[in-house]
Specification:
This protein is mainly α and about 80 residues long. Helices cover about 25% and strands about 0% of the residues.
Length: about 80
């Protein structure tokens, strides 16, 4: 067993500010950049709403005015 005093070296440890201070500095830098981006953004008008679009669903076509409806040849069964 060793009864002498242990020595610790701080040669590889970064001195100066604490981890919290570095984190706050990075956050301040980031938010400053975001404020610059917002301040430099262009004002623009949103696009007007699109025109209405009429869609047709398959199988829902009906003849107007009671006219007889003709079945397309592609759907007829071969006799």
């Amino acid at each position: 067993m060793y009864d002498g005093q242990l020595e610790m070296s701080f040669a590889g440890v970064r001195g100066g500010s604490s981890a919290r201070q570095r984190r706050l500095t990075r956050a301040q830098w980031w938010f400053q950049r975001m404020r610059q981006a917002v301040d430099g953004a262009l004002d623009w008008q949103p696009a007007p709403p699109p025109r209405p679009e009429q869609t047709w669903l398959p199988g829902t076509h009906r003849a107007a005015g009671g006219a007889p409806q003709v079945e397309p040849e592609s759907t007829r069964l071969a006799a």
